[in-house]
Specification:
Layout (H helix, E strand, L loop, with lengths): L19 E7 L3 H12 L4 E5 L23 H14 L4 E3 L2 E7 L2 E6 L4 E9 L4 E2 L15 E2 L2 H4 L7 E5 L3 H11 L4 E5 L9 H9 L3 E4 L2 E7 L6 E6 L5 E5 L2 E4 L3 E2 L2 H7 L9 E2 L11 E3 L4 E2 L9 H22 L5
The structure holds NADP nicotinamide-adenine-dinucleotide phosphate.
The site of NADP nicotinamide-adenine-dinucleotide phosphate has 22 residues, from helix 4.
Length: 331
């Protein structure tokens, strides 16, 4: 029996020692780590398997909307989440889940490193992937000036000129972060109105190092060995120009992991997110999806750390109830 109802006895087990769990959590962002915390507090044996501990929360330059923790860097908030999960002894394994298949009412979770874990329930909290611009030069110059993460690569551009593409919270907070490092930041958005919170846009507009270019799209990223410039076009006038920049930060939103859901048989909505019910359950018994990758008609789309965490908590509660009602203590 692996289902235990006391908080004692939970220990940190390495993945080599144990392969069978009550709840396997795929993804270690705010949704996944919260699901781990709640699962452990229900005395479920849980494990987190994640490619990136903290998910995109770890890349946020500054988080100022998580209640009780004002103005905290994303990586600091990740540490707090992880320490809280570790307090309950839940192992966090860095690996990529490649498949999830059913066997005798349970789920086998397969990873890129060839490991297999068995769980009674699986909570998928893998978020979304960064969207690409799809312009010439982008793929060729990734890592040579083209980046999708301001906090990871920003420090490489001290006193250099950079461009940030996008009009959402990631682009505007990214531009504000880069303005503290670079000598000049172009913030290039394809429309007049920003999608980002007004509080961030107001700050960017006032920042002496940030130049906002509205109604411009990037048509090409230029450079031989590294980024040397970008070609942009005004969407209203058609005017084209080249900006000399050393770095391009692409922050144009996220795309859901639709192919993965298709592969494992989770029903998706019209936008490619997993169709989830209010308790984060899916069409597959014992499979839950929480956070940015969850969708469906019940979903109120508002991608925040707090909303992802809330869905992780709901998924763990629902998975716990599912296990109690579907498995005997001998299973
Ligand atoms: P987002 O909110 O979806 O914004 C993406 C932006 O990129 C939009 O302004 C969009 O333009 C633009 N865009 C999309 N495709 C483009 C293309 N091909 N070429 C040029 N521009 C393109 O994405 P995000 O900023 O990455 O944020 C993702 C989620 O995380 C959002 O829900 C966001 O609120 C949340 N987030 C929150 C915080 C926070 O501080 N609370 C920080 C970061 C992220 P249009 O506006 O014209 O569509």
């Amino acid at each position: 029996m692996s289902l235990r109802f006391s908080l004692t006895g939970l220990s940190i087990e390495s993945d080599q020692e144990k392969k069978e769990y009550d709840i396997i959590i795929v993804g270690g962002g705010p949704a996944g780590l919260t699901a781990a915390l709640y699962s452990a507090r229900y005395s479920m044996e849980a494990i987190v398997i994640t490619e990136l501990i903290g998910g995109y929360m770890s890349e946020a330059p500054l988080v100022d909307d998580y209640p009780g923790l004002p103005e905290i860097p994303g990586n600091e908030l990740v540490k707090k989440f992880v320490n809280h999960v570790k307090k309950y002894g839940v192992p966090i394994i860095v690996d990529k889940v490649t498949d999830i298949i059913s066997k005798n009412k349970k789920w086998i979770v397969k990873t890129l490193t060839g490991k297999e874990y068995i769980g009674k329930a699986v909570i998928i909290a893998i978020g979304s992937k960064k969207r690409k611009l799809g312009v010439p030069g982008e793929d060729r110059l990734i890592g040579k000036g083209v980046s999708y993460c301001t906090t990871c690569d920003g420090p490489l551009f001290k006193d250099k000129v950079v461009a940030v593409i996008g009009g959402g919270n990631s682009a505007v907070t990214g531009a504000l972060y880069l303005a503290e490092i670079a000598s000049k930041v172009y913030l290039i958005h394809r429309r007049e109105e920003f999608r980002a919170f007004k509080v961030y846009v107001d700050k960017a507009e006032k920042h002496p190092k940030i130049t906002i270019l509205r109604n411009y799209i990037v048509t090409e990223i230029l450079g031989k060995e590294k980024v040397e410039g970008i070609k942009i076009r005004n969407t209203k006038t058609g005017e084209e120009k080249i900006l000399d920049v050393d770095g391009v930060f692409i922050e144009i939103g996220l795309v859901p992991p639709t192919d993965f859901f298709r592969k494992i048989g989770v029903e998706i909505d019209e936008k490619g997110y997993a169709k989830t019910k209010p308790d984060q359950s899916t069409n597959l018994p014992g499979i839950y999806v929480a956070g940015d990758a969850a969708g469906g008609p019940c979903k109120y789309r508002f991608e925040q750390i707090i909303t992802a965490a809330a869905e992780g908590a709901k998924a763990a509660d629902a998975a716990f109830k599912y296990i109690v009602s579907s498995f005997s203590t001998e299973d």
